[in-house]
Amino acid sequence: MAKYVLSRLFAMVITLWIIVTITFFLMHAVPGSPFNQERNTSEAVQQNLEAHYHLDEPVFIQYVIYIKSLATLDFGPSIKQSSTSVNEMIGRGFPVSAELGITSLLFAVISGVILGILAALKHNGAIDYIAMTFAVIGISVPNFIMATLLIQQLAVTWEIFPVATWATPLHMILPSIALATGPMAIIARLTRSSMIEVLNQDYILTARAKGMTTFQIVTKHAMRNALLPVITILGTLVAGVLTGSFVIEKIFAIPGMGKYFINGINDRDYPVIMGTTVFYSAFLILMLFIVDIAYGILDPRIKLHKRGN
Amino acid sequence: MKKLVVLLLSIVLLLGIVGCTTTENSSSNSGSGSDESKQEGKKVLKLNNGSEPTSFDPPIGFDSVSWNALNNLMEGMTRLDKDDKPQPAIAKEWELSDDGKTYTFHLREDAKWSNGEPVTAGDFEFAWKRLANPDTASPAAFLAYFIEGAEAFNTGEGSEEDMMVKAVDEKTLEVTLESPVAYFPSLVSNPAFFPVHKETVEANPEWHTEADTYVSNGPFKLTKWEHDSEFVFSKNENYWDAANVKLDEVDWAMIDDTNTEYQMYKTGELHTSDVPADLSEELFNDGKAQVEDQSGTYFYRFNLEMEPFQNENIRKAFAMAVDQQKIVDFVTKNEEKPAHGFVAYGFEDASGGDFREVGGDLVTTDADKAKELLEKGMEEEGYDELPNVTLTYNTSDDHKKIAETLQQMYKEVLGVNVDLANQEWNVFSDEQKQLKLQFSRSSFLADYGDPINFLESFQTGHSMNRTGWSSEEYDRLIQQAKEETDEAKRFELMHEAEALLFEEMPIFPIHFYNQVYLQSGDVTGIVRHPVGYMELKGAAIK
């Protein structure tokens, strides 16, 4: 096990390095500059700015400088918001995005799994159809439409919730729901299909024969196997949802880190592009690693160390 | 046991990751100023800044998200009144030498910083030299070039000592300009020329990044800055004219989405809002949307280094085929003024006339003439068929609508099929500067309140030229206008230059910009200048 973890960690570092390198050179290959403005600036001013951020050096030198500072976990200052470092940006934005992400993920997982199980138990029944219609709507309605609808109805017309911003727990409800509908629908569908498969297994029949109630069967025997596919996508989902959603954060004016992914690129704010990419990749790789470990525990048939023992 | 492990794992997966972050929630849960605002009699104005200010360090935050707010935190030598005229602010008066080049500003005795210390001429000298210092890397540094020696200092050819701004004593600042600039008092109202508290800046280079270290000298002081979320201004009791500041507090939200902003305006969480594009027609019809001029021009650039626009008559044909009035009436529908010249409205000459009105329409819509000029131009160039024309704009719905309208107009009027192309903004901007685009969308917003700011753009090799157009005559006129001390003559030279620009037509205008907004009836006294930034000093709320 320890050997496995070590080799995985090593692979993770290599993967990250490859991502950093490719992103760095791609980013500099794209036309444009962080100082491009439609308004007037003089040539000298432009040069002073470039010198200030070492952008006048050859790209390879910039790469070496960047890797050196990255080794100390320093992402450097943002060019656009020159008084803020990228570390500060992530430090401020990630907790907020994560808070929103966790709330909506909890909502998505709990309601998704329940919907999926109900649908599987009443396979081809009314509940199944209702739950799956719900799921199809959840997948097909984009979250920005959902967000606008929620604001219009619940905040403006009925005035139950505040329209936007991020202040009290009450402010968290609408964005969490808007963000959760998509993942919830995916989870519901996955749970349903694997649950149906599991429920047809012999051991479930045995359990039934022993006189267990449906509730016991589902919670004790079926769920553990049925949730394997859900765990699989959870890794990606967690990384995606926790690092922020550009659209939802923009609509609800939430100070998360979602906007940095998009604005960094639009502004050609190189340190921000790199910082967010590195952070997201590291986070995603870590999540996938945790998911792999979780497999081994959930399903003893999966061996982590290939030809071990 | 195994069940327990499964349970624990799922919890780890979901919660464990942020165990460390939940402790920080308290900071984001700090209620907005609204709770405090319920205290009796407190006058709180609620505005939206759109996004996090780039920087509240005057020479750095060269954009409206920084300077709109900063304009009310700090104060320069002068401040623009509601008619956009510079009025004494930190300077109580100033004198101009006979050659029109040396200004002597006398500071108010009672001008103080928010920390209680006096605002000195030394603070201004320090701030202006800091603006030009190449190490500051200010994007607004070129505004300092009016001061003698500033350009040399900024480009690294001169030294700080040779930049001609000097604190003669505690309260007197003397500044010598490169050439006479009649509008210098208006220019120094610009945030780039705001003073900074020298000791604070020298002691802590990060002074401007947080509310507790920020020192200001304007009507308001920064009392809270929750990054990416909101900031709060309170009345600055140390301000020399505090008696005339009617608001107790200004809460600035940062809402990027216009629809959300509009919804919050409707529920009373904001006092002003932009107009969402989809609703603009409706809001104009209801008379709810208000309009203010903005000094800037939406225009198109021809590239004179690419066929067929090396030919003046073909350029003119493309310009005259466009009906600006129709574009503002049926396409943009934002009540802009159609533009038939490059310099916007709002610049008064010596005898009180408006520059634009005196200059008149320099390009008019004329379908027959356009057709005639196109034929003539094609003949001159020996074209049987016009080379392909591609019109490029940066990706945006608004620009697309105008581009498609132009395409239609060229087809109807000239019988020419124009291709459309759009590019991501940064790519577009790069290619336009490198003269790789044949025919492209452009805009200009004035940095200071004088027609010369518009016209200097098209001097040979100027960074705003971007057309490949060059005229010795034009360059000479602009140079003369910059050195002329007589206002009437200066305006004459500028009119002559603008006429010449349209004689050769390297560009043609579409419309002048404006500022459209919604504002609660309870709010009065917010001033939005055509050139300059939002003014809250005289703002009040019922």
From TrEMBL, chain A:
Protein family (similarity comment): Belongs to the binding-protein-dependent transport system permease family.
Superkingdom of this protein's organism: Bacteria
GO cellular component terms given for this protein: plasma membrane
Subcellular localization(s) per the UniProt record: Cell membrane
Coiled coil (UniProt feature): none
InterPro entries (UniProt xref): BPD_transp_1_N, MetI-like, MetI-like_sf
UniProt entry tagged with the keyword Transmembrane helix: yes
PANTHER family tied to this protein: DIPEPTIDE TRANSPORT SYSTEM PERMEASE PROTEIN DPPB-RELATED
Name used for this protein in its record: ABC transporter permease
Membrane-topology annotation of the record: Multi-pass membrane protein
PROSITE patterns: ABC_TM1
Protein's organism: Guptibacillus hwajinpoensis
Signal peptide: none
Keywords in alphabetical order: Cell membrane, Membrane, Transmembrane, Transmembrane helix, Transport
Transmembrane spans: 9-30, 100-121, 133-152, 172-191, 226-248, 278-298
One Pfam family hit: BPD_transp_1
Biological process per Gene Ontology, one example term: transmembrane transport
From TrEMBL, chain B:
Range of residues in the leader sequence: 1-22
The keyword Zinc is annotated on this UniProt entry: no
Protein name: Peptide ABC transporter substrate-binding protein
A single MF term (Gene Ontology): peptide transmembrane transporter activity
Residue ranges annotated for the Solute-binding protein family domain, each copy included: 85-462
Keyword Signal: yes
Protein source organism: Guptibacillus hwajinpoensis
Example of a GO cellular component annotation carried by this entry: ATP-binding cassette (ABC) transporter complex
Residue ranges of the region described as Disordered: 23-42
Biased composition (Low complexity): 23-34
Intracellular or extracellular location(s): Cell membrane
UniProt main location, coarse: membrane
